Amino acid sequence: MLLNIKPLKNTAQVRAEIKKIVARQKKGTVDDLTPFSVEIDKLLLELEFKPDWKKLPVVARAAMMDIEGKIVPYSEDIVLPNTKHDLELVVKMLNYLREQKKLSAVKMPLFIQPDEVSLAYKEGKFSHEGGKISSQISVVLQKGAIMYAGFVFGRDYVILQG
User: Fold this and answer.
1) Is residue 131 part of a domain?
2) Is 9 helix (H, G, I), strand (E, B) or coil?
3) Domain assignment of residue 98, yes or no
4) Does residue 81 contact residue 57 with C-beta atoms inside 8 Å?
5) Interatomic CA distance for residues 134 and 141, integer angstroms
6) Chain Cα centroid distance, residue 98
7) 3-state secondary structure of 36
8) What values do phi and psi take at 23, rounded to 5?
9) Which tens digit of pLDDT belongs to each residue from 125-150?
10) Which of 2, 78, 155, 156 is most buried, judging by how many CB atoms fall within 10 Å of its CB?
11) What residue spans of the chain are helical by DSSP H?
12) pLDDT for residue 5
């Protein structure tokens, strides 16, 4: 499946590919993210291409946190074992990684959870404690190709196939 896909090589290509995936959604459907285009652009600014994205399976995640009325970005990459992944396997692996950190499994670990942000604060990886996640993006990459792009706005989420 990935044999004919050219790996993405930089941040601009990743952002452009995600915008193409979003634009392919039929207007007026549940997957239509047109009303969130400004927020998507802000989230895309938080994704920074890393060389590992071309070699390994990675879940790149970014969120906008509302901390005392101020919007603060939070982002992280989770490198997965080097094997072909479908969405179900990614979810299982992410929950396994959560449990390794002594966090409980969740229904949709593809997206950043509040307890992960708290743990990042305790580990010194994020400079703010608390807050509310207002929006987020999660991108599953396999050897430089986008397999899935997911978005959360409020309490609703959508996962689009790459």
Assistant:
1) yes
2) coil
3) yes
4) yes
5) 23
6) 15
7) helix
8) -65, -25
9) 998 888 899 999 999 998 888 999 99
10) 78
11) 11-23, 37-45, 52-55, 87-100, 114-122
12) 62
